[in-house]
Amino acid sequence: MKKRFFAAAVTVCLLLGGCAGNKVMIPYSSDTNSMTLAELDKGGESQLFAADLSVIPLGDDKGADAKLTAESVLLIDSTDNKVVYADNIYQKMYPASITKIVTALVALKNSDLEDIVTISHNAANIKEPGAKLCGFKEGCTITMRELLTAFLVYSGNDAGVAIAEHIAGSVDKFAEMMNEEAKETGATHSHFVNPHGLHDDNHYTTAYDIYLFFNELVKNYGSFVDIISQGIVKIEYKGPDGSYASRTFSSTDRYLVGTQTAPEGVTVIGGKTGTTGLAGSCLVLYSEGENTHKYISVILKADTGDALFLQMNELLSKISQS
Predict the structure, then answer these.
(1) 100 has catalytic annotation
(2) Composition of the chain by helix, strand, coil, percent to 5
(3) What is the pLDDT of residue 60?
(4) What does the DSSP 8-state code read for residue 203?
(5) What is d(CA 165, CA 177) in angstroms, rounded to the nearest whole number?
(6) Three-class SS of residue 69?
(7) Which CATH number fits domain 100-190+226-254: 3.40.710.10, 3.30.43.10, 3.90.1750.10, 1.10.10.10?
(8) Where is substrate bound in this sequence (predicted)?
(9) Which residues, 6 or more positions from 213, have their beta carbon under 8 angstroms from its beta carbon?
(10) How far is CA 22 from CA 3, 9, 43, 306, 320, in A?
(11) What pLDDT, on the 0 to 100 scale, is given for residue 57?
(12) How far is Cα of residue 112 from the mean position of the Cα atoms in its chain?
């Protein structure tokens, strides 16, 4: 935990262009906001932080590619923790279903994958027009592993409500947990009100914060990487009467279902898409280059799905140049 408070402190300092004096005001922590850098550095916290993350100071954008017209774009070599490309990465953005990676992080920390989740009336009756649903009925039971798989691969919003209610008792309480996780991760420019990303003006993040969440997941949760790398999944569960049921879902990631090909020398491992009218078309990916380095790429608010994947290919092509 101390390491994460340090991460948040360093992030804020760098965003402000440097720390004046030796005092660091650490956000979200009333009992540590008077610690000095020297105190924080005892035990090697600064070295631990530097080894885990790429820190990009405000104004250090490296974006200059006219083909990358999305609102916010980021590519990081997560093996060496170096920025390859960055443009407008601290701009407040709506994440749409990329929100689901934050939900997954909270779920993996606060539940067991073999937990049995019961689908509630609320989860089974999302009425928002255009909301993507797995179609689970009230009273169905399913393991957390299967539910997270449907949630991340197919992007079913009903699965998100079920996860939230199982862990926190309500969507509102779960959103509080998401915001606490954002504080711990150092994602100081994010705020969430639901587990799925259906639009709310007070539900936002940045490309850099998405990197922080995604980096935490891919480096510490192999189960998450296993789930997001699947193109087609068969989800098994029990109906309200206890009978066996199953559904087959395809990934929303075009790379995984074969409708988009990555640039030569790049292997897409997995990722998460997101789309709403106000968020535009969004994508975060985990990929590997020919040098065996792993990369995290983020594109937020492309105009269309086609434009999103064309621009992601342009961004991934920079891996061979890094």
Answers:
(1) yes
(2) 40, 20, 40
(3) 57
(4) -
(5) 12
(6) coil
(7) 3.40.710.10
(8) 272
(9) 101, 102, 105, 182, 185, 187
(10) 18, 12, 18, 48, 40
(11) 67
(12) 20
- Tell me if 148 sits within 8 A of 113, measured CB to CB: yes
User: Would you call 29 exposed, middle or buried from its count of C-beta atoms within 10 A (0-12, 13-18, 19+)?
Assistant: middle
Could you list the pLDDT tens digit for every one of the 322 residues in the chain? 434 444 444 444 444 333 333 222 223 222 222 222 223 333 333 333 335 777 776 665 666 789 999 999 999 999 999 999 999 999 999 999 999 999 999 999 999 999 999 999 999 999 988 899 999 999 999 999 999 999 999 999 999 999 999 999 999 999 999 999 999 999 999 999 999 999 999 999 999 999 999 999 999 999 999 999 999 999 999 999 999 999 999 999 999 999 999 999 999 999 999 999 999 999 999 999 999 999 999 999 999 999 999 999 999 999 988 7
Q: Which residue ranges make up each domain of the chain?
A: 2-50, 100-190+226-254
Residue with tokens 């956000």: 27
User: SS3 string of 113-181?
Assistant: CCCEEECCHHHHCCCCCCCCCCCCCCCCEEEHHHHHHHHHHHCCHHHHHHHHHHHHCCHHHHHHHHHHH
pTM of the predicted structure, to 2 decimals: 0.84
Indicate if 251 belongs to the active site.
Answer: no
For the beta carbon of residue 236, count every other beta carbon within 10 angstroms: 11
Retrieve residue 240's tokens. 């309200």
Q: Kindly report the three-state secondary structure assignment for every residue of 216-252.
A: HHHHHCHHHHHHHCCCEEEEEEECCCCCEEEEEEECC
The active-site residue out of 78, 97, 120, 281 is 97
Per the annotation, the verdict on 155 as an active-site residue is yes
Amino acid at 274: G
Q: Which residues are annotated as a binding site for substrate?
A: 272
